[in-house]
Design brief:
It comes from Alicyclobacillus cellulosilyticus. By secondary structure, the protein is α+β, with helices and mostly antiparallel strands. The chain has helices at about 1-10, 50-60, 65-75, 80-95; strands at about 20-25, 30, 35-40, 40-45, 105-110, 110-115, 120. The protein has one domain (about 1-120): Winged helix-like DNA-binding domain superfamily/Winged helix DNA-binding domain (Arc Repressor Mutant, subunit A). The longest helix has 15 residues, at about 80-95. It is globular.
Length: about 120
């Protein structure tokens, strides 16, 4: 867990965390400060790359984030959209009740991806 935190802080800095908590529904939430995701009362394990994507989406909660911006933020622009698509699919498998019909990490046609949720700062 310390490695994940260090990698994220190095990439984004201490103050670029976005909301402290994001509630996706009554059974799924993520704590951006503690790098934890809880779904149905169980912690969900995510890779550093998945956390970087979530953090980028959480910083603009309920607003679309362009594919190009995500690629630049997560991989420094050294990856293509298919790599992002695979990681988003894996995130959906971890977080969504039905990954084929996403409710939380949605594709906004022509704009990018968006994380839907409610911000909680405490």
């Amino acid at each position: 867990m310390a490695f994940r935190e260090d990698a994220l802080v190095q990439r984004y800095g201490q103050n670029a965390r976005g909301p402290a908590k994001v509630v996706l529904d009554d059974r799924t939430w993520l704590d951006v400060e503690r790098l934890t995701v809880c779904r149905n009362g169980m912690n969900v394990s995510l890779s550093v790359t998945q956390w970087l994507i979530l953090r980028c989406l959480a910083k603009r909660l309920n607003q679309p984030v362009a594919v190009r911006e995500l690629l630049r933020s997560v991989w420094g622009g050294c990856a293509d959209a298919s790599v992002l698509q695979k990681q988003v699919w894996r995130l959906r498998q971890a977080l969504e009740p039905d990954p084929r019909r996403p409710r939380y990490i949605v594709t906004v046609r022509g704009q990018g991806y968006m994380l839907r949720g409610t911000e909680r700062n405490a």
